[in-house]
Design a protein that fits this description.
single chain, 181 residues, mainly alpha, Rna Polymerase Sigma Factor, Chain: A, Arc Repressor Mutant, subunit A, elongated, WH-like_DNA-bd_sf, transcription regulation, RNA_pol_sigma_r3/r4-like, RNA polymerase sigma factor
Length: 181
């Protein structure tokens, strides 16, 4: 088994066997990233393949540090670019009536499996889901999100608040229906 460094060096030299090992090592984790930012498996696969091509094209730019973090940034940026390109086809976001409510019912969340929680998050409207993932999952701050998406920082904050409110309602409905069984 080759070390990560050997695989990266092989990829830099264009070795197909190294590229295949890199793909096998990271494809599951990177597909999960793509799935969080898209509305369908088909769309996630498009972003996934485009991002992997970028990884191989830009691997010579990698110069140390967390390789997975470097890759993840390429995948997240590719997903954001995909979102921007397809934005005109998506429903426009409603920026009015900001609700500054956050979920307080942590018990509902703790009773769900990771997969169930991911399914609920994936039901969020696209704009909410994008900002929720960037802020909560990837750890970007509102200023960084605003720059990436070319929106106002306040819009990022309001979309996160709306996403949390939306999630809270969904989780409460889920909890009520599970308790009714």
């Amino acid at each position: 088994m080759s070390s990560e460094e050997e695989i990266i060096e092989g990829c830099k030299k264009g070795k197909a066997s190294s590229q295949e090992k890199l793909y096998q090592t990271y494809s599951g984790r990177m597909m999960a990233v793509c799935t969080r930012y898209t509305r369908s498996r088909f769309e996630a696969e498009d972003v996934f393949h485009e991002a992997f091509v970028k990884v191989f094209q830009n691997i010579n730019a990698y110069n140390g540090g967390s390789f997975e973090g470097w890759m993840r940034r390429i995948f997240v940026n590719t997903a954001i670019n995909h979102y921007h390109k397809n934005r005109k086809y998506l429903d426009q976001l409603d920026y009015s009536a900001v609700e500054e409510k956050t979920p307080t019912d942590e018990d509902i969340i703790s009773s769900l499996s990771g997969q169930e929680l991911l399914e609920v998050i994936n039901q969020l409207p696209d704009g909410y889901k994008l900002i929720f993932n960037l802020y909560v999952v990837e750890g970007y701050n509102h200023r960084e999100i605003a720059e990436m998406l070319n929106i106002a920082e306040g819009t990022s904050k309001s979309q996160l608040a709306k996403a949390k409110s939306h999630l809270k309602r969904k989780l409460q409905k889920l909890s009520i229906s599970e308790n009714a069984d």
